[in-house]
């Protein structure tokens, strides 16, 4: 599988580290219930089809990416920086 890094171009998946689902939002640890923290830490979806995932390009630009991929075919629809940069900001 080749992942299209927006900074480095298409690279082999071996250059990346998979983190998981890009959608969960961490609950506020001081305000969250025990059940909410359990849900965040342990409960993950395993869908068949289109899925947004976090990948780290450790052997390249060291950027975190959000990759939209079909889990049945591994076809990648999009790859974008996990944290968008502001226009005109220093790199």
UniProtKB/TrEMBL annotation:
Gene3D superfamilies: Folate-binding superfamily
InterPro entries: SoxD (IPR006279), SoxD_sf (IPR038561)
One Gene Ontology term of the molecular function aspect: sarcosine oxidase activity
Example of a GO biological process term: tetrahydrofolate metabolic process
Protein name per its UniProtKB record: Sarcosine oxidase subunit delta
């Amino acid at each position: 599988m080749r992942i299209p890094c927006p900074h480095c171009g298409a690279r082999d998946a071996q250059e990346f580290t998979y983190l998981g689902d890009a959608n969960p939002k961490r609950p506020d640890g001081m305000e969250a219930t025990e059940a909410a923290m359990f849900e965040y830490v342990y409960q993950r979806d395993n869908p068949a089809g289109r899925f947004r995932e976090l990948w780290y390009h450790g052997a390249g630009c060291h950027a975190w990416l959000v990759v939209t991929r079909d889990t049945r075919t591994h076809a990648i629809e999009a790859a974008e920086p996990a944290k968008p940069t502001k226009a005109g900001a220093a790199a």
